[in-house]
Amino acid sequence: MSIARALFGFPGGVRLPTHKDASTGSPIATLPVPPELVIPLSQHAGDPARPAVSAGDTVHRGTVIGRAPGDFSATVHASSSGTVTAVENRPVPHPSGLPEPCVVIRTDGLDTRPADGPEPLKDWLSASPARLRRRVADSGVAGLGGAAFPAAVKLTPGPDTDVALLVVNAIECEPWITCDDVLLREHAMEVVTGARIMRHILGAPEVVIALEAEKRAALDALTRALDDAGEPGMTVTRVPVRYPAGGEKQLIQTLTGREVPSGGLPLDLGILCHNAGTVAAVARAVEHGEPLTDRIVTVAGTGVGQPRNYRVRLGTPIHRLIEAAGGYRGQGHRLIVGGPMMGFALEHDNVPVTKGCNCILVTESHAVPPPEPALPCIRCGDCADVCPMRLQPQQLYWQAMGRDHEGIREDGLFDCIECGACAYVCPSKLPLVGMYRHAKSEIRTSDEDQRFAEQARQRYAFRQARLEREQQEQAERRRRKKEALQAERGAGEKADRKAEIQAAVARARKRKRGGGES
Amino acid sequence: MALKTPPAPHIHGDNSVSRIMRRVLYALVPGVVAMTAVFGWGVVVNILIAVAVAVVCETAMLRLRGKPVALFLNDWSAVVMAVLLALCLPPLLPAWMTAVGVAFGLIFGKHLYGGLGYNPFNPAMVGYAVLIVAFPQAMVQWLPPTGLAESALGPLQTLQVIVFGQLPPGLAPDALTHATPLDHVKTRLAEGLTMQEIRGGPVFGVVAGSGWEWINLLFLTGGAWLLHVRVIRWQVPAGVIIGLAAPALLFWLINPEQQLSPLFHLLSGGAMLGAFFIATDPVSGATTPWGRLCFGLGVGVLAWIIRTWGGYPDGIAFGVLLMNMAVPLIDRYTRPRIYGHGGR
Question: For a disulfide at A39, which of A9, A315, A332, A422, Cβ 3.0-4.6 Å?
Fold first, then answer.
């Protein structure tokens, strides 16, 4: 194994306090199966799964409870055995806070596997890529880094696209999060195997596993696993710790010096990135025939007793996780799913762990002070210095304030990856990311409106044209009819006239004659 | 239990507008000490008067505009503006003139445009421009450096002169006023003297005006610290310095007997104060990296032109104001290439 790669780096970025040691002190703990699992049918990007069970059904660990309606979706499985008690709307970890369809399971504690579950594919090297893709899709694997993008979709680049480089992203650039770190420390072989399987599926000549320079224990474990695997063309690259080094676009730039085209995909460069957890899940799905029913979650922050990493069944309520981690500590908490830079805050802890939950961050109010009153922007440009996309956030801010949709689009609003570096350094404490999100949704809505308006206008114009044409046709028909009528009547009238004249003549003659008589 | 759900990010750095402004004030200290040493207590009195007027005006305007007074006073921006303007004024300028300049700059240059962050022109330079246009005579009456003065005024005497216009008995007004070296050279050159002849005079120090060169060097020191703590970026000061020195060098090489040396330009008048503290005002300046360099270059070149051919004692103020007007254009045409747009 070699650590070979000259790094290119990326512009901007910030150094954040990492707080990683808080949760890496003890090994991964397994959280017991809770009495009730609430499993959302939409835990992934794309279309929600359709329920495949109903109340009263018996399920096992790995039973399909939600079927993907199309390719851009993911299968959902029961995380333990028991009885389905309901398929209903329940609160889910989503920024909107709206309830969504979930399958509720009362667990029986037996944790049995279904008899007809998928076979372990120990000899995956001789399996066809199509079969392996099918297996990944059937196992419900979605991006475990947070975005929860269906893994099988990403492993299907299309017939004309060659993947030259597969990147396994083990960089957790957000503070506190360590689930990939502990995964590598304890299950490095899973990650290596998963990467080999993916490489086999994609036919990628090169695989790079990227992690932060600080993750020494993980690096050692990974190095050993790679040596054991002994597969050429796979390397580990250590990347300097700087937020957002783990962002897909930034990581690609760091590794290759190339930029993903605006509005495009890494595939446009022949590169594919997968999160380390996702890669390990693929290994388990293929090698052991285990669908995705659990994940590693970091519980961290100053507001929780014992920060640690837990292997948690999907659908476990978050409060169970916090209780296991020593419960709440201090006062005035904030509960964040994901990291402190890009994660979203929850209103309460009675929502389930989903495929995208990499971290539950519990902070005390003094650690995360209430936002100070924002001052106006003084155009200091600190935000532009840290923007990894080389945007000018201070300019976008003015355009967002002035609703200059055209200008803000031109200045790259839709290139913003919402990493939050600008808002982090802003001396005026402006909620910049929130403003950009708002502007994006405003523009999308107005685009939509415009599209509808254009459609309506076209329909109206079409209708007008049709009415006009119909009117013309009708007029034409009328004219023809009239003409025909006239022609008919004309002929008739002539005959009538003649008859009339003849009658009149006859009457006159009669009268003359009669007159003489009388 | 309903927890708060503010938008991400949930953590913030420790920078603040208040800290930026306070750091600017700290960085001014060496220059202010040097100015006081050279020109006497008038410098300090001017600063105190300007700050007092600024705080009163700022408070009044915030009240009038219905803005939170404590929040905005705490950003220290009014104080910075007042100190910067005070440092551009002759040391014995009558107090009411200082007050007029500060009040105009703050009220018309800042609050009528919408207050902090919204002013297109540098408020301190707006105040300066008003003063130099309204009171051209008073604005060029600088004191001689203490070494040259026949009698230095004590702090109380200075206060009396500035506030009440009372000169200590037995002191003629002429003894206290003096043209700045920049003015001095310009007048002499106009009279047909050569640089060599002018140089011999006592207003010269080592490379530039006596006293002024030290003041400029100490402002440079403070500015270097601001660069170090990243309150300002290198582009604007570099731009001003190059913009001022490059044409000066060219003309000086062509005609050293009629032109000031680039070093003289850089260490005279408000060169370093302007380069590191005034032209670097983020609100009214350009904001892209290349834009800042262009902005600085523009300020420097304009300052050199005004110094060389204009009628004003220094050119930094009008250089800054003129370039303020060009900022939207500069920012538009110097936007960096965005990631993923026409890259490799």
Answer: A315
